[in-house]
Design goal:
The chain is mainly alpha-helical. The protein has 2 domains: about 5-110, no CATH class; about 115-250, no CATH class. It has helices at about 5-20, 25-35, 75-90, 95-110, 115-135, 140-160, 165-185, 190-200, 205-215, 220-250, and strands at about 40-45, 50-60, 60-70. Helix 2 (about 25-35) packs parallel to helix 3 (about 75-90).
Length: about 250
């Protein structure tokens, strides 16, 4: 089996998984299993939140090592699951390297399972539900829905044009706060605090925070700390955005 082709397959699989929300230990395990299934020896992988390192020994070309940098970080656990399935099929011998590479390219290029409008709508539903869950009335669910929808639309739209995702999260929290405050001041809703809480809950970095704890528990201290720092900065961006909206309008 061509060592460099196998390296491309492993790196593409790892890049997809790391980009779309997989834990670092899961990425390392996947790469090592695929490389060992291809017959390579002394396989080692090291994954951080922004990079993937892979090395192994091939009888024909000797030691092979490759590194790629991963800058984009999104959430789509369906793609992580699909890559896991490709890995299992490759390890079990159900598919060869050409089929694995073709399937991985298809996964990387595939759009999201759900249209953006549906995702924004669900964020609005979640915002309304959280506002009620945290003590708001039924009248607070509507402004929380509208503000949550606006914040979700803002963060997704801005991330397409900005490299700094923390600014997109700051602006989305600011916009959601402005919409929530204006609606309550206009009489749509009664409890401003609960409406704001419901607006912000869909923006909370749940997956990065969960992965940070999971990486720390598995002993990946570097990845766990870096993911935790990312989650904290995201939370600070959200808090700063809503604080600015409150300071300007109240």
């Amino acid at each position: 089996m061509n060592a460099y082709r196998m390296t491309d397959i492993c790196m593409l699989a790892g890049e997809i998984m790391l980009t779309y929300g997989a834990e670092t230990y899961r990425v390392e395990e996947t790469l090592e299993r695929m490389a060992k299934a291809a017959g390579f020896k002394h396989v080692h992988s090291f994954v951080t939140t922004t990079g993937i390192f892979l090395s192994f020994e091939d009888e024909d070309v000797g030691d092979v090592m490759q590194m790629i940098r991963v800058d984009d970080r999104m959430q789509d656990l369906n793609k992580v699951s699909l890559v896991n399935q490709v890995s299992r099929e490759f390890v079990s011998g159900m598919i060869n390297e050409e089929e694995a590479l073709s399937q991985l390219h298809a996964i990387a290029k595939a759009p999201l399972n759900y249209p953006p409008l549906l995702l924004h709508f669900c964020s609005g539903i979640a915002g309304g539900a959280f506002s009620y869950l945290f003590g708001g009335g039924l009248a607070d669910a509507l402004p929380a829905f509208i503000a949550g929808f606006s914040a979700s639309w803002c963060v997704v739209t801005l991330q397409e044009y900005m490299k700094v995702k923390f600014f997109a999260e700051f602006m989305s929290a600011f916009l959601g706060g402005v919409v929530a405050i204006c609606l309550v001041l206009l009489g749509v809703g009664e409890n401003l605090d609960q409406v704001i809480i419901g607006t912000l809950m869909p923006l909370v970095p749940g997956i990065p925070l969960t992965n940070a704890v999971r990486d720390l528990m598995s002993g990946d201290l570097l990845a766990g700390v870096s993911r935790g720092a990312e989650a904290i900065i995201t939370a600070l961006s959200i808090a700063t955005g809503i604080a600015l909206a409150i300071a300007l309008l109240l």
